[in-house]
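P.,

For your records, the input lines for the assembly:
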Amino acid sequence: MSIGVEIRPDAVYTEEVETCTCVDDTTTDTTTDDSSADTTTDTTTDDSSAETTTDTTTDDSSADTTTDTTTDDSSADTTTDESSTDTTTTDSSDSSRRRRLDETTSTDGQTCTCETTTVDVERDADAEPTYNGHHHATKQIMEIAYEQSYVREEWDIVITNPDDGYFTLNLLSPPGEENVSVTTTSLIPVNGWAWQVRRALNWYYFNYYKCWTTVTKTMYDSAGVETTSSSDAVTIRYRVSPNI
Amino acid sequence: MITPIPASSGKYKKTTSSMQISLPSEVQQSTPPFAGHYTVTCTDINGSSYTTSPINVWSTGLAVQNALQKIPFLVDNFELEDNYDGLFYFPQNRINFRLHFTGIDYQMEPCVIASYDGIDLDPLTGNFDM
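Structure tokens returned:
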């Protein structure tokens, strides 16, 4: 089973696109003076109510005038102040797109209507594998793994009629070792804890296999039923599983 | 071979309990480890794929790094780290490493490990019933 995990940069970013259309000023009555009144007219169309709302706001530094006018769309009667210079249109039906219309008069006698569209772009990481990042950006880290369904070896130490004595284990060196030898563990209490068996075996396993072990202890009463009482235990089973 | 021996030492009492060892052949034997060879395939910005020479499962991260360094667009552009964890110390049980592309400033497609499919060396074998 092959696993590929990678860390990618932010997948969402914003783009702005501006498009301007200029016409001869002789057909337009609108003039602009940035140093004086800076008036904004916001026109919002609500599709659900089929109404058009016009907000006219005048900067405080000049004439302080605010007008909210709501008209029925069917009458197509939209009121706009003559001094208004900027028109912003918001399409509420799509929150990811914001469109702004800026109408300005250039010095050569032309009125330009510029449309700025802001779009949230979600990058499809799979569709854009050749994205070019900044050379100082965090570099990609990839973890690659190939694994199998691994079942660990298990073996048992079964003790019948446990008492309060101790025992050791003699372990023969693994096949393939140059010198055959026997490793004798430290003393292990018959009715001890699982970790005491584990501690006694770990030296052997780390020496030959570079691993530790997992040991579980299970006790059974005279009827062969699992029990948690040491005094009722007739049989104790230590199950050893090397972590290899 | 494992032999339990009743033992005593100083104040520690020799047990009189009977003991028996059940070997893995009677309880549970482990899965055979990986064997054979594998390759790593990486794709560059132009979509061209490059595959390493076969890598033995016994190989360490250094051998994998050497194999990857022969891929033209990766030369001196990455660092490799063995990613062993406590449960899979040996690569024969789990091949796992981390690539840090220190010299590449674009998003690469994930590199892929695959069994070697040549005829001169053994393919990768293991228990893939996952």
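Two observations worth noting. Chain A touches chain B through 60 residues (CB under 8 Å). Chain A has one helix and 16 strands.

Regards
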